[in-house]
């Protein structure tokens, strides 16, 4: 599941590649450097977004398991079902 930040990072990375290539073709060290910088920023943004998604997924998995277990102890089918849904959501985020 891609977040807006992850998608934006990917786009910046690709734009940086294009800019760097254009700089090479035109013999512009400055344009190459700016393209490289844009790629680094894009990759950093993408990786940070992925890490955030993994953390959110792990949190949802654990929360869901706990809610499911609590529902099993108390006999609440509603809590068990809700916990299972949250757990599955977490798995999908990872």
From TrEMBL:
UniProt cross-references to InterPro entries, sorted A to Z: YjbJ_sf
Compositional bias (Basic and acidic residues): 35-44, 85-94
Domain of life: Eukaryota
Name assigned to this protein: CsbD-like domain-containing protein
Amino acid composition bias (Polar residues), ranges on this chain: 1-13
Region Disordered: start-end pairs: 1-44, 73-94
Source organism phylogeny: Eukaryota, Fungi, Dikarya, Basidiomycota, Agaricomycotina
């Amino acid at each position: 599941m891609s977040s807006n930040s992850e998608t934006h990072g990917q786009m910046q990375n690709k734009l940086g590649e294009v800019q760097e290539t254009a700089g090479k073709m035109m013999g512009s060290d400055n344009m190459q450097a700016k393209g490289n910088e844009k790629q680094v920023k894009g990759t950093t943004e993408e990786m940070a977004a992925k890490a955030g998604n993994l953390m959110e997924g792990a949190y949802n998995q654990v929360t869901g398991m706990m809610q499911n277990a609590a529902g099993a102890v108390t006999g609440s089918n509603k809590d068990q079902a809700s916990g299972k849904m949250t757990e599955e959501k977490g798995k999908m985020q990872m």
